[in-house]
Design goal:
This protein has 205 residues and is an alpha+beta fold. The protein is built from 6 helices and 5 strands, in the order ααααβββαββα. It is elongated and about 105 Å long.
């Protein structure tokens, strides 16, 4: 019968063919695998029935060639390496963010919320944009907790599914930090403007 490595690669490619709707690939791999299994069963029957060793060896050679052809068809040499095979057969999705923003909520209603955002990689941390999000984009627990002043993190990146399919994903979640009230935000802005005006006056003099 097939080795564990061959079986794992076969299952992976078969699942990929089904997921992507590639019915032609699915049918081809299924037929080849079925043929290999039938040879293995026939070989076992011949052994039990006491067939001549020459007949069994001939069948084994035929089965070995077809098994190698099948393995070459469904996996490259690199994919047959154990470490890559494990990675290909992973059970969980992975997410790599390409862009990250963080900000505070300035408005919330029953359906949407608005956030003033800054690029987390911007050393100055200045507000660069204002974005509106659907409340349903948040987990249910965060939907109940969000309020004006809540700190929000927004990530856009690449998600790799267990079958190696890739998709662009946007994720929004609340950070577990103290909430800034509207008064806190307004006071901070007033103080910042006051400091800025003072610096401009010093430069002018």
């Amino acid at each position: 019968m097939r080795s564990n490595a061959e079986q794992s690669i076969f299952d992976y490619r078969l699942d990929s063919a089904k997921y992507t709707g590639n019915s032609e690939s699915f049918e081809k791999i299924s037929k080849e695998y079925t043929l290999h299994i039938s040879h293995a069963i026939q070989e076992r029957k011949m052994e039990v029935q006491g067939s001549s060793s020459s007949n069994i060896k001939q069948l084994r050679r035929s089965s070995t060639v077809e098994r190698k052809d099948l393995l070459d068809e469904i996996a490259s040499p690199a994919e047959r390496q154990p470490n890559l095979l494990t990675r290909k057969s992973r059970l969980f999705s992975s997410f790599t963010p390409n862009y990250e923003w963080e900000g505070y909520v300035v408005h919330v209603d029953s359906e949407k919320f608005v956030v003033n955002l800054s690029d987390v990689h911007d050393e100055e941390g200045s507000v660069t944009d204002q974005a509106e999000f659907d409340l349903k984009e948040l987990p249910e627990a965060d939907q109940r907790r969000i309020e004006t002043g809540s700190i929000v993190r927004w990530l856009v990146g690449l998600e790799i599914l267990p079958n190696d399919q890739r998709q662009r994903v946007s994720r929004v979640h609340l950070r577990r930090l103290p909430v800034f009230t509207k008064h806190d935000v307004d006071s901070a802005l007033e103080e910042a403007m006051s400091i800025l005006q003072g610096m401009e006056m010093d430069d002018a003099s």
